[in-house]
Amino acid sequence: MRHQLNTEIGTLLDKVRASTPLIHHITNYVTVNDCANMTLAIGASPVMADSIHEVRDMVSIASALVINTGTLNEATVASMLAAAKQANAKGIPLVLDPVGAGATPYRTETVRQLLQQARFSVIRGNLSEIRVLAGLDEQTRGVDATAVFDTNSQQQEMQAFIENTARKLNTTLAVTGAIDIVSDGRRICFIKNGRPEMARVTGTGCMCSSLVGAFLPMAESPFIAAVAAVACMGTAGEIAYGNLLPQEGNASYRNRIIDAVYNLTAAQIAEQARLK
């Protein structure tokens, strides 16, 4: 079953590169360039338009929309809400990256408005952010994932929580951390790729959300798209770490992650993606 999923991801990667879907981003200014480059690296085409005067038109010609709440202001929030509604009206798949949900009332309220006014195909976040979306009101430390689970009982508890939350929010959840978990409320996949050093690179989560957006238009389901994106990001992190030179640090690592995605092949995913 998991071997078949590995093969599906590789096939999906080839489809993205053959089709070059246009992925519209309304994202944060800290990582916007990295998100654009990651979108190009996987084989899609990015556009980073956030003006209220053009977001409806832009999303109408896009293959997917990625909304990231990392740096908010009144203008971008209005654009996010308008673009999300237009994406739903046009049947365009929609990704939410609720960066820092729970960190401030304004940020949390913005995410709540987005969830109330639009339906998202995939929500990708760390565990603290997803707990806030589930209504647990957990206070986060900015964009850090603070919770871990090691025992079988903890894993079962986490599985039940994520499946229930996915059903509650009527979406596919991609929860990234030491072990990544994707669930649409019916199916669940644990992904054990990646490196802890990825946490020292700003924006790896944002880049992963861009990959979700790139895979969504080509995938048979948001679940497959999310698994593909998370597995590709983690695999690229492993490859990039193996290519680092002794004197290189996190800036080089960021570039090598993007390069690893650019050079990623279906065969590498089939062999290296560790799915359970």
Automatic annotation (TrEMBL):
Keywords: ATP-binding, Kinase, Magnesium, Metal-binding, Nucleotide-binding, Thiamine biosynthesis, Transferase. The keyword Transmembrane helix does not apply. One of its GO terms (molecular function) is hydroxyethylthiazole kinase activity. Pathway: Cofactor biosynthesis; thiamine diphosphate biosynthesis; 4-methyl-5-(2-phosphoethyl)-thiazole from 5-(2-hydroxyethyl)-4-methylthiazole: step 1/1. Belongs to the Thz kinase family. HAMAP family: Thz_kinase. This is Hydroxyethylthiazole kinase.
